[in-house]
Design goal:
Elements lengths: L1 H6 L11 H11 L6 H6 L7 H14 L5 H4 L7 E5 L5 H7 L4 E6 L2 H13 L8 E3 L12 E7 L8 H11 E12 L4 H16 L8 H10 L15 H8 L5 E7 L4 E3 L4 E3 L1 H5 L3 H4 L2 E7 L1
Parallel strand pairs: 1-2, 1-4, 2-3, 4-5
Antiparallel strand pairs: 5-9, 6-9, 7-8
Bound molecules: S-adenosylmethionine.
S-adenosylmethionine (SAM) binds next to β2.
Length: 291
Amino acid sequence: MADYHQVAGGSQLKGPMTQVTLDSRNTEFWNELCGSQLARSLGITDHTPESLRRFDDAYLALYPYLTPYVTREDLAAKQVLEIGLGYGTLGQYLAARGCRYHGLDVAPAPVAIMRHRLTLVGQDPGDRIRQGSALSIPYADASFDYVYSIGCLHHTGDLPKAVQEVHRVLRPGGRAIVMLYHRHSLRRFVQLPVRYLRNCIAGRRRYAGFGETVRAYYDANTEGEAPPHTDFVSRGQVRRSLFKDFSRVRIDTRNCDAYVFLRGRIVIPRERLLGTLGRVLGTDLYIVATK
Ligand SMILES: C[S@@+](CC[C@H](N)C(=O)[O-])C[C@H]1O[C@@H](n2cnc3c(N)ncnc32)[C@H](O)[C@@H]1O
């Protein structure tokens, strides 16, 4: 853990916020389903099968590199845990592939929608979808063949502990597929500092400082508020520190913004950048780690 503090520049909990406070703030913040802005932009106001299908189509089109992390694996009859459920697109996709799907989330709303989605694919959720924290996964050691966690563990406030927990619940040879935000992305290194400076100079400051501005840019809720905590990690931190107990680690850089220059006269669409710039300086790291 000390190593992580050093290399990460002390990005874990600082100041007066305790883990208990953060857990309760996370529970409250994430109880608005992550993806609510996308749903709103699509005019989705309910969770009928048709609305969820429209949401999932749009979500998967936005992140076209996501499903190969599922289809490349042989999940049939495997014990799979997903941590950080959001709107439940990935969870339903996993469950529909014949694995023994389990879900965990700190907030009640993602748990509720995931339970609903399991019934839509003809499965009884039983106690397989639980409310709880990634920092204390409510399962015994070596319970799972796979753990999926996309965009969640960096919000917990103790990323090393969260990764240790994932390692603990995986059986030997089991695999973790984890997305964490990339510390060295073009968005975080160039685009957001420039934007922040421009806004400061123009006197347009909504957030308390640069950190909150960045958190809000990545994960604002529909009120525009920033999530309570977000960590950003480098590939080196992933390999040398966070995932050092895994026997094999592969890191893919993914995701990218569109770029607009000269007052909209030059626009480079996001789709063009996903397979190029996004593979080097993209916003997300997809980590495939074998125990
Ligand atoms: C940014 S959303 C990602 C959701 C989904 N995986 C996706 O990619 O759309 C983060 C999710 O992690 C959950 N989360 C945040 N802190 C957590 C914790 N300590 N333990 C478990 N889940 C947590 C939130 O409730 C939320 O559903």
